[in-house]
Amino acid sequence: MKRSPALRKLSNEHHHGLVLAKRARKAAGTEDAQRAWQEIRARFATELEPHFLAEESGLLPALERAGATDLVQRTLAEHAALRRLIGENGAQSMTGFAELLEQHIRFEERELFEAAQQKLSPEEIGKLAH
After folding, report:
1. How far apart are CA 90 and CA 106, in angstroms?
2. What percentage of the chain carries pLDDT values higher than 70?
3. Hey, which of 41, 45, 92, 98 has its CA 20 to 30 A from 30?
4. Total domain count for the chain?
5. Contact (Cβ atoms closer than 8 angstroms) between residue 120 and residue 66
6. What's phi and psi for 2, nearest 5 deg?
7. pLDDT (tens digit, 9 = 90+) per residue, 51-108?
8. 5: exposed, middle or buried (C-beta count within 10 Å: 0-12, 13-18, 19+)?
9. Which of 119, 107, 127, 102 is nearest to 7 (CA)?
10. Residue 98 is part of which domain span?
């Protein structure tokens, strides 16, 4: 299904998340792991956290009102798990973080955003862009 223009920004941001997951996976267990983890944590704060907040303040409440409670709950639970992992001070969290982030992005693209396009009116989706 073609992505609604109002959801394209969020969808495009997922590319950055996948790049971050790949970076974490590649650096895990290397001599560079600790430095990479600090970089990943910084990028999480500037790129992913604002993305999560945008979803949590606009898209998820709209989907909740439309009855997509299970999708909303899963999204919130995964956001919380990713925040918990990124808050850990050890590079040993990198692989788990990378795997969960990639799975989460795939879920949002394949299920959450598709549900939004099916369950929300064009007017409701349009409001998300603002």
Report:
1. 25
2. 98
3. 45
4. 1
5. yes
6. -70, 140
7. 999 999 999 999 999 999 999 999 999 999 999 999 987 777 899 999 999 999 999 9
8. exposed
9. 127
10. 5-128
